[in-house]
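Sequence only, no structure available. Ideas?
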Amino acid sequence: MNSNAPTLTLLIVEDDPTQATLLAETLADEGFATEVLGDGDAAVARVRAQTPAAVLLDLTLPGKDGFSVCREIRAFSTVPLIMITARVEEIDRLLGLEVGADDYICKPFQPREVAARVRALLRRANDWRAPPAADGGPLHFDDEALQARWKGTRLDLTAVEYRLLKTLGERRGRVLSRAQLLDAIYVDYRVVSDRTVDSHVKNLRRKIAEACAGANPIESVYGVGYRYLGDG
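Reply:
I predicted one. Tokens follow.
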């Protein structure tokens, strides 16, 4: 990492002291500052009070599980968030993405892989650039703030959802396959299923419809992928 860059603080939400220490020490070696919390309510309060650079969230927490914590955080913040858990079923990964996680890592994990995933997520969240924008009609993007607006109304999107909508919006009228969309939103070439894109599109549609009186500018193209129409 650039020694002249400010130290970024990562919030680790993990109730297992051994796992928390392993993550904290590994990330400290990579130049990050870390803060460890062991329960979900404290994590939500911490993000609300002062947003960290990213959140690493375990799913199995005392009292309130990671899915609930993620939902609460997403109600007010688009902070980059990685779920880390021993749950390996596809339904758990999909649910994690649907409630707003940007990435999902299964235990047991390699600590260096976690550090690499964090760096990749922060890089995409802060420095992601797409081809020059075409006319997106009522849709407008602010890369610096990672904010999208539909007819002037701000959409509360995660970093992955922002990149997905921007990829579609800048190619108005073009059909993009699920593989193309995966390549655009996950630049680290991870292995994920097509259903991952479907989950993110479902979230985008819901958020646009809720914010903008039922608008639905994303069209499904059977057997291929999705297309942004531009007028809802």
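The first helix runs from residue 17 to 29.
Hope that gets you unstuck.
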